[in-house]
């Protein structure tokens, strides 16, 4: 393939990758609208957004080290802004303990580890070797991000339910991986193409699993509880509370009935005793 054609195709895949990745970044909007509306994080975790911010920051650093990486700079800059906005809103409405934990997490990874990576790689005199080291670090964290849906896939297998798996999101993640794989392939960047092979495989596996279990009956496990899905936990708590209230009401009503029956039996025995005593008194 001629160089101009490869550059044109790389630009097309880069633009499409930016569009799809932007849609993926906007996927948590309903979650944060719910947090804003209820003024509570309701058990949602901040770890996915901290990891996503760290990954975007790392890819942004990698893009600045490279030349002609405008496509990477644009989407990862937007990703940093969006993920930071999510985390700010999360910390506003999170409980004090969760807020402190999130702040420690951000300081440790997004400031500490990220700062160590920048400072240590700047000590490398060779720019080509520096790009290679940062590229491999980016691959490791990208693989960790792509492997995150494994917990949801395991949950689907155990419960035989796709209630907690979003098919549109899985489709967008798969499509995003395809776009960036071909972009990395066309610009001959192994550190962009390689992790997206794994992203495509996981996304495809999620969609196949969704089609396999979409008509299955729900079978919730007794020990099931996930902080990632607080609405389910809340519903279970409400059901448990209602059943507990109903049990207490039933117990109270049964106790009241027993007391009433005991009182009626006592009154009957007293009446019988009084009736038996009256003839004896009249005889005397």
UniProtKB/TrEMBL annotation:
Q: How does it sit in the membrane?
A: Multi-pass membrane protein
The yes or no answer to whether the keyword rRNA-binding is present is no
Reported function? Mediates both low-affinity uptake and efflux of sugar across the membrane.
Sequence similarity = Belongs to the SWEET sugar transporter family.
Q: Where is the composition biased (Basic and acidic residues)?
A: 245-255
Q: Which spans are transmembrane here?
A: 6-26, 47-64, 105-124, 136-157, 164-186, 192-213
**Pfam families with a match to the protein in the record:** MtN3_slv
Read off the lineage from the record: Eukaryota, Viridiplantae, Streptophyta, Embryophyta, Tracheophyta
Keyword set for this entry?
Answer: Cell membrane, Membrane, Repeat, Sugar transport, Transmembrane, Transmembrane helix, Transport
Which Gene Ontology MF annotations are present?
sucrose transmembrane transporter activity; sugar transmembrane transporter activity
Under the heading Gene3D superfamilies, the entry gives:
1.20.1280.290
Keyword Cell membrane in the entry? The reply is yes
The segment annotated Disordered runs over 244-284
A single cellular component GO annotation:
plasma membrane
Indicate, by first and last residue, each region the UniProt record lists as having compositional bias (Polar residues): 259-268
Compartments where found: Cell membrane
Q: What is this protein called?
A: Bidirectional sugar transporter SWEET
